[in-house]
Amino acid sequence: MTVELDNIDKVFFPDSGLTKGDLADYYRRIAPMMLPHAKDRPVTLNRYPDGIDGVHFIQKAVEDHYPAWLDRVTVAKEDGELVQPLVNSADALVYLVGQGAIAFHVTLSRYDRPEHPDRLIFDLDPPDHGGDVDDFAPVVAAARAVRDALEAVDLTSFVMTSGSSGLHVTVPLDRSADFDTVREFAQAIAERVADAHPDEFTTAHAKNKRSGRLYLDTRRNAVNQTAVAPYSVRPKPGAPIATPLDWDELSDRDIGPRRYHVGNIFRRLAQRDCPWADIARRGQSASRALERLKARA
């Protein structure tokens, strides 16, 4: 199929001159790496029809003019139902870029079992030290502490730059547990990490209770909540990308949330296989891990 786009020369990222057409080309090229992480998950679009300096909005629902070939799914919500798009093909990614989408956020469960996630996420952003949020060392330290706490209950985790300000630590799950169990486990891990490092990390949601400590955020682990899809571009200067990493890359002094972008991601992938290539085959039981955690309390 050939997806025709209008205004392909419209500049979406003024700092680099990246156009809508350039962005569409990126998503078509990255699709083989990105789609395994996004397929069959309701997607929320971050749309910037006039580029990152223009008006923007979040969109969940399929619009009436979207073509019939674009996959979609009906999602239950508190006050009824919502029809959302799926990005199950490179053509879908390109078409939605044509609608002004820059970033793609997906649910932690697939549409066939929305109450049973196959991903658990810890969202780690820099602490606010009087307005200075550029120090990435606390984020790296938090990611390693979360990884170690997960390993203590025999869980393997993966790490990714968010492309925005922090890191995501992700645990692949086998979909045996529901969101209530997964959220209970994630919060218990976060509390264990915070208790072990009380001066560095906290589970306090209220900013005025954090006292400059990094917040171990587990709130994404809920029905219909989303996280940025691996290899999604973020609407930030330089077109940074949410990029899966190997754990040893956190030792790189140049690592940061926007280390990889549209301009260098394919050079990286030519030199190193995607660290998340087999994540879908690594599903683990959150219920058993929670039992192990309680037994060791």
Can you put this structure into words, describing what you see?
The protein is of the alpha+beta class. The protein has a domain at 119-222 and 281-295: Alpha-Beta Plaits (2-Layer Sandwich), CATH 3.30.70. It is built from 6 helices and 14 strands. The chain has helices spanning 20-38, 90-98, 137-151, 179-196, 265-271, 286-295, and strands spanning 11-13, 18-19, 43-47, 57-59, 72-77, 80-85, 101-107, 119-124, 158-161, 167-172, 201-202, 214-217, 226-228, 244-245. It has a 6-stranded mixed β-sheet with strand order 11-12-8-10-9-14, covered by helices on one side. Strands 4-3-7-13 form a 4-stranded antiparallel β-sheet. A two-stranded antiparallel ribbon has the order 1-2. The longest helix has 19 residues, at 20-38. The protein starts with 10 loop residues before the first strand and ends with a helix. The relative contact order is 0.16. Mean pLDDT is 95; it is low at 129-133.
